[in-house]
Every structure is written in C-alpha cells, then in structure tokens.
Amino acid sequence: MVNHDVVIYNFRLEIVKAFISEGYQVYISSPYGERIDELVKLGCIYIKTEVNRHGKNMFQELALMKHYRTILKDVRPDVVLTYTIKPNIYGGFVASMLKIPYIANITGLGTAVEEKGLMQRLTVLLYKIAFRKIDTIYFQNRVNQLFFENQNIYPETHKMLPGSGVNLNHFKLQEYPQKESIEFVFISRIMKSKGIEEYLAAAKHIRNKYPQSVFHILGFCEEDYEARLKQLHNEGIVKYHGMQRDIRPFLEKVHCTVHPSFYPEGLSNVLLESAACGRPLITTDRPGCREVVEEGYNGYLVETRNITALIEAIERFIDLSYEKKVKLGENSRKKVESEYDRTIVVNSYLAQISRIGEEV
C-alpha cells in the first residue's frame, strides 16, 4: 500500500522483483500513474486506490480506510507492506482488525507529525491504534525512531534500514565532468519545504558572482511554482527541466547536487542516487539528509532555511580545485557502496516475510 506509483517503482522495484522471483504474488494498492503499467508487466496485480496525500477531509479518509478493508478482505494477503503516512495508519488499522501480519516503513514523519499541535497529537493517537499489533516497523533514521519511542509507539519488533537504499548497478559511478562551467542540480518535488526558495536565492546570488555557474532544477511542481520557474528559466537564472523519468543523464553533466530540504525526510533518495553516481552533495544538517553526508568528506552540511550558509557552501565548493571536487564525488560513491546498497533492504524484507510465513 502506497500513496504514489513512484514510491514503488523508483524505490522498491528490487523488492517487488525479489518477491516475484521467490514465488510470491504481489498486489499493489496505489493511485494510478505511468509506472503502474510497468509493474503489471512484471506480474503484479494492481488495485486502484485514490489517496489524497495532503487531504484532511474526514469523509475521504474514512472512504480510504473502507477501501483498504475491502481490499484486504478480498485478497486475504499473507502479509501487508505499507509506506508513507496514510497507508501506514489506515492500512495498519485494517490489517490489525483482520489479524493480518503487517510491516510498516516510516519514510518520514511528515509536517503534521513533526510540528507540535493538534494534528501531531491526533496522528500520534492514530499511529498507536494502527500499530498496536504490528509485526515490524522499519525506520530510516534515528530521529524518527526516537520520536516513536518517546511517544510510546514502539513495539519490540523494530528495525533500522539504510533508507530505501540505492541500486548501485542502475546508478553507476559516472565520470566527473570536465568543463569550464560549474553546474549544480536540485532534484525534488518543487515545494517550499524541499528548499526551493533557498536554492533559487542562492542561484541568483551565485550567477551574479560566478557567471560560469549553472543551476538545474528537476521535478514536478507540487506547489504553485511553475510560472515562476519558467520565468527564471527564460531569464537565464536557472534551467528548469520539469519532471524527468531518468535523472542519470543530468547527474552525468553536473558537478554537485544541492538539496536544501527542511522537509521531514525518512532518508533522501536524491542524495543516495547522486552519491552513487559520484557527485558531491550540499544539503541540510537535519534528519534524513545529514546521514548521507560527512562534512568535508563527500560534501557540506548547512543550517536549514539559511540562505547565507547555503551560498557560502556553494562558493566553498566552487573554489575547490578540480581534483578535490573529484575526490568528494569518489567519496560519495564509497559511502553508499559501504552503507546504502539496496540489497540490504531487499534481504531484510525477504527475511522478515520468511519469518512471518514460518509463524503462520
């Protein structure tokens, strides 16, 4: 159960393939997207499920939970796997009611949970209800794990994963570009909490001081930025490429990935994929981002929402020699090879499901 087809295809495809190769029948509950057809070709059975990721309409939420109940009663799966907040909570609640083993992956707390207030208290209560009989909770960073522990949403069966991991064969080490221009890239959903404002401000400043610099932007606009990005593109401040199915050709030609996010991440896939391709990283010193960067080893960490700090980090990178830039990139690849190989994630899921099968 997921809230977007990309959640499965881009970050859990290897898990799906491993399940199928082991002889499991895989059902996917998700809103329809272009990746669904490719998953069906692999042998998955698709169940269309509308999920309003940011919606708070009580009737929509109840309808989603009812839909999950219908799915699980019809399919009667041996185990339910969920990702992201609403599938975790509503899917977990229904699985618990129907006494179906259930594994949740905490891909981030989300703004509603991270910020104190009524919504946080309500979400924590829902988690407690949904997770009361859960088999396993996977966490992607220690801060998320501590939050659940402090809120007493913490069964004994919890495990830490290296995020979603990264497919090191798909995201290969790429030759570091040799050219006079210094090129940066922002890859994300285009929304304020992903740091787009800070990136745009830094791009304007750096372009004035270093005319040879280039600032790329990849991603779909989840918030109202489309017109502004197109205008900045036309002015030559940034190069806006929209949503891209394959980010590797862009990583091939850039020198550094900039990810100034203050979104409640689980663990940033953009940073993992960029690092796997051998690119230095500039990101924020917050959970879900800081885990992938060792200061000065493969990139730089900056304070969240601090444009000045971001500009200073970018200038610091620009002033490095070519050889030092290359070394940062090589270190990025070494780090993900040793800590974030996606096979770690796949093997952990296979072991958990095998154990559940033996207990049933």
From TrEMBL:
The Glycosyltransferase subfamily 4-like N-terminal domain is annotated at 12-141
Query: InterPro entries of this UniProt entry?
Result: Glyco_trans_1, Glyco_trans_4-like_N
Q: Does the keyword Transferase apply?
A: yes
| Keyword Magnesium in record | no
Q: Molecular function (GO) terms listed?
A: glycosyltransferase activity
| Domain Glycosyl transferase family, residue spans | 178-334
The record, for CDD domains, names: GT4_CapM-like
Instruction: Write the record's keywords in alphabetical order, separated by commas.
Output: Transferase
Kindly provide the name given to this protein in its UniProt entry. Glycosyltransferase
| Organism placement in taxonomy | Bacteria, Bacillati, Bacillota, Bacilli, Bacillales
